[in-house]
Design brief:
Low-confidence stretches: none
Strand order of the largest sheet: 1-4-3-2-5-6-7-16
Mean pLDDT: 95
Distance between the termini: 71 Å
Structural class: alpha/beta
Strand content: 15-25%
Shape: globular
Number of helices: 17
Largest sheet: 8 strands, parallel
């Protein structure tokens, strides 16, 4: 510890030394972000700016926050989920980086929003969100601060959906970059990161053998693709449910069984929702599930599983049977009772029951965040209020840097190939 007072609201300042080790371990797997941090330290593109950050407070995020600070920013951070904070990391951010941190694992709903308010008390000029809670709070509760904001970034699909709804309603008051939509984000973070970390969370929470289990994935977006692929890789028999015809067709041609949830609920043994929608699993599904069915969510908010409806069905028949595993006993139609096991309170299982995405994947995502922030500052005043894509040049630059750190070489087109690709006169 440095002897400085705690800046923010964290669980245990004495955990800082453990957090320091965890952050350094992640940093070794994040060479692209590290190279950006080194440049930011020289060039200071965020000098004098206040950045309000609402992200999962993990070791990978800490390395990103260090990058923003190296760029000259004053950083304030809160958690984007009540169960995703790594308390040792939060302690290190305060003790070692002197970054104002308002986050601890297991915070109440009220404390969660008080932490968002604490970040907004710093009057941020850039916002960085994961789920749009910070932006939503700013627009609904503190509209007088909106004129101070240059722009923002959004890290997850759920947040982008909310932002597009704000844009369509013409209430979004500053430009926000949809980092989630960058190829170097959704092709890797969403698919490989969510796929691996979700399976990790389920196994850590239950120690269940997935091989041979009937595994139901609700939603076949990039995250759902990753979960389905990793579950199949573990030997599970995977069924996909969807509401989108194109994605359902893609799942079928990827070799997965596709069914309505009403059918899949009868045979599934492990369920993962990853849709960005609400009440994907609800009473009509709980009532027909097999005894001992495991239910988890990998979507951003805890609304994909209707926990209120499940609790109503169970009455008082609910208990914690393992850390992060709650058993609900519901009556079946034949007069028998069945146990349904809910993981991590229906919150993000990959962060609540495991450590979230591997650092090597988050290297790409946070590189996007850092360069998007730099771009917003460079183009301040030029971008219209609304949702903007990550510039293609940023996407390409990050991919190139990542390949270089991996020692992977690719071909360069020849002069004649470039001419051919730019031509319209060459035919058969």
């Amino acid at each position: 510890m440095t002897g400085r007072p705690v800046i923010g609201d964290i669980a245990d300042p004495s955990l800082a030394s453990l957090g320091r080790l965890r952050i350094a371990w992640a940093d070794a797997e994040m060479p692209v972000l590290r190279s950006i941090r080194e440049r930011f330290e020289r060039e200071r593109p965020l000098d004098g700016l206040v950045v309000g950050v609402c992200l999962h407070v993990t070791a990978e995020t800490a390395n990103f926050l260090k990058t923003l600070k190296a760029g000259g920013a004053t950083v304030l951070v809160c958690a984007s989920n009540p169960l995703s904070t790594q308390d040792d990391v939060a302690a290190s951010l305060v003790a070692d980086e002197h970054i104002a941190t308002f986050a601890f694992r297991g915070e109440s709903h009220e404390r969660y929003y008080s932490h968002i308010d604490a970040v907004l008390d710093g009057h941020p000029q850039l916002t960085m969100d994961d789920g749009c809670d910070l932006v939503s709070r700013l627009h609904q509760v503190r509209p007088q601060q909106l004129a101070e904001v240059i722009g923002g970034t959004e890290d997850t699909r759920t947040g982008v959906i909310r932002l597009r709804a704000m844009e369509a309603a013409k209430v979004l008051r500053y430009p926000i970059v949809a980092v989630n939509d960058a190829d170097t984000k959704h092709l890797f973070d969403n698919r490989h990161g969510t796929g691996q970390s979700t399976i990790d969370g389920i196994v850590r929470a239950t120690n269940v053998l997935l091989a041979g289990k009937r595994f139901v994935v609700a939603g076949y977006g990039f995250c759902g693709k990753g979960v389905a692929a990793r579950a199949r890789g573990m030997g599970a028999l995977v069924t996909v449910t969807e509401i989108d015809s194109l994605r359902a067709l893609e799942a079928v041609t990827d070799g997965f069984e596709v069914q309505p949830m009403a059918e899949a609920a009868r045979t599934g043994e492990v369920f993962v929702t990853v849709t960005g929608n609400k009440q994907v699993l609800r009473a009509e599904h709980f009532g027909v599930m097999r005894d001992g069915a495991i239910v988890a969510n990998a979507g951003h908010f805890d609304v994909e599983i209707d926990l209120v409806g499940l609790a109503r069905m169970a009455g008082g028949r609910r208990r914690i049977v393992r850390p992060l595993v709650e058993e609900f006993t519901v009556a079946a139609g034949d007069g028998s009772f069945r146990r349904i096991l809910v993981l991590a309170e229906g919150r993000l299982v990959n962060l609540s029951a495991a450590e979230g995405h591997p650092a090597a994947v988050m290297d790409l995502s946070f590189a996007n965040q850092a360069l998007a922030a730099e771009w917003l500052v460079e183009d301040r005043g030029k971008l219209a209020n609304g949702v903007h894509p990550v510039p293609a040049m940023v996407d390409a630059k990050i991919a190139k840097l990542k390949l270089e750190t991996m020692g992977v070489l690719i071909d360069e087109p020849t002069a004649s190939q470039k001419a051919y690709l730019a031509s319209w006169t060459s035919g058969t």
